[in-house]
Amino acid sequence: MNFKLLLTFFFTCSLSAHAFDKDFKTVNDRVPLEFNYLFDSLKLMIKTPSEKIRMVGLCQDLDQNLGFLPKEQIYLLMKSEVIKNVLEYKFKNVRQFDISILLIERLDKELLSRQKYLTPFSLWIWRSVIAELRSRQNQGLITEKSFTVSGFDGEKRIQAERFRRYLDYLLPWIDKMDSLDATQFNVLTKEVSWNILRRMNDRSLLFKRYSSTAVGDSKIMIFNIPERLTNLHPEDIKRMQMDETPLSLKEQGEKEKTEATSAVESITPTDMSTISDDISKELDKKVP
Questions:
Q1: SS3 breakdown of the chain: % helix, strand, coil, rounded to 5?
Q2: Which pLDDT band, with edges at 50, 70 and 90, does 237 fall under?
Q3: How far apart are CA 46 and CA 52, in angstroms?
Q4: Which of 105, 106, 112, 179 has the greatest number of beta carbons closer than 10 A?
């Protein structure tokens, strides 16, 4: 295999905003819709070779660590990790909002103007937050007046108190939905996606270690990862991790010629007399 050509292929693809190997994908019936949105959006958003190799590596690990669990367990684990880590993502300087029907209508209007620019994962988050607010509106908790627990009695007050605690997770996202444009929001959800993948991978290691009794007899494939994305020479992986652009054949030839000339010019008589002795082989991601 010509690893230099393979590396050049990776860098050529990275010039396109939408480029990633089309055969690198999830096995749809084994992952939840939320994760599919995350996966497809991350493929759209990543630009550099280092990001690409990072994503492939994390997915390889998930395949290895979760593949022996029952399909239903894999599905529920991935679904819960996506939702949990979206809600628990840490934000700074979150503004407060009057939670009312007026806010829902404003978010609906803003979504209409932005949705065609949002990635699938960003769009899922937008729609999920609005759906949560609509649900509380249908329960009578969100009205024309600003939401406050003290405005309810009895069973309704218990529901209102639970919603108040849930707002601790929703308000940061409402703040970002209200203040960021579509591009900025996509950048945010890209970072959240990396966080989810990393934490999901950490969790998968625990499952592999402590859930031996739940392991099935056969391995389930969660991702389709083409062999061309995994069979890379260590030097090519190193270059990709550093986002180095590969040299053309002409540039490589000139580089080797310069290095050879420099080496010859630096040789001393002592070096020449012992050169035969110096030959050696070279290698080496709760709601209360």
A1: 70, 0, 30
A2: very low
A3: 7
A4: 106
